[in-house]
Amino acid sequence: PATPQRKRLISDADLASISITNPTRRLFGRSGPTKLDIAVYYALVGDFMLPHILGRPVSLVRCPTGKPQDCFFQRHPFTGMPNSVETFQSINSEGETKSYLSVEDAKGYLALAQFGVVEFHTWGTVRKQLEKADRVVFDLDPGEGITWREVVEAAVHIRGELEALDLVPFVKTSGGKGVHVVVPIAPKHNWKKVHQATSAIATRLAATAPEVFTTTMGKDKRVKRIFIDFHRNARGHTAAAPYSLRARTNLPASTPVSWGDLESIDAPEDLNYSSLPDLLVTSGDPWAEIDAFARDLPLLSEAGK
Ligand code: ATP
Ligand code: MN
Ligand code: MN
């Protein structure tokens, strides 16, 4: 079959303007990837990744020294930040006005990748319509004793349950041990409603297989269980963006996959900064049409579970 056509969001001029300080500085030890490797990865996957981050509030993980213990999560503007990254004001959960970040074009995105940003995390909404969620995520967090194969089976089970609610779920690896089941929704409800509705859905999902799932946070409750973390859907909370690298050995990527391909993944950590760009050339973006599948989020009541 022909190589899938994709829209070019990063121009040759954008690529030609890339320059990186300390390009050979390695992350995570002597055999780890370099700053240049990270920038090249983000340049290569940009046409796939940008549709999922443009216009959304972003938080970043930066690792300025290259040591894992020095990586940190950044949700607000910072010294030396490229000026192509946009900032905007909003309130936090304490009611204080704060500045947040968003990437509005390829330049801002590439500038962050050149600057040494390792991870991109997004809100499930766009800055222009901040109070209405347009994507929710069920973050499946396996406890001790759960295998990757069991995580995959659980995700497939959850897919069926969500489809029974007339939703269209998509899936990606988290880049860690779990998966993220992401559901595009019509942007109608505020965060409080969305958090409540995803709580009720998670409770219902867990009830279909209580020996597998839990919806409570306590780590002791998670042994041999999969925690359905729906709290990513609270206002201001984030999840790793599609195609984001993760700041750990070999830089695994949070990789969108088709439901069919999910079952053929044996080791999600093999989807990483060096392997993924080539794979994408043949697979295309399995999430390319995600926004066309937005449905109304059912507002189940907790009582009706
Ligand atoms: P895993 O599969 O290992 O669970 P994950 O990305 O889902 O990978 P979680 O620990 O389940 O990891 O989720 C953590 C989420 O919380 C991240 O997606 C991120 O958006 C957010 N986060 C991470 N670090 C911080 C931090 N220091 N402060 C606030 N939020 C954070
Ligand atoms: Mn998780
Ligand atoms: Mn989690």
From TrEMBL:
<protein>
    <recommendedName>
        <fullName>DNA ligase (ATP)</fullName>
    </recommendedName>
</protein>
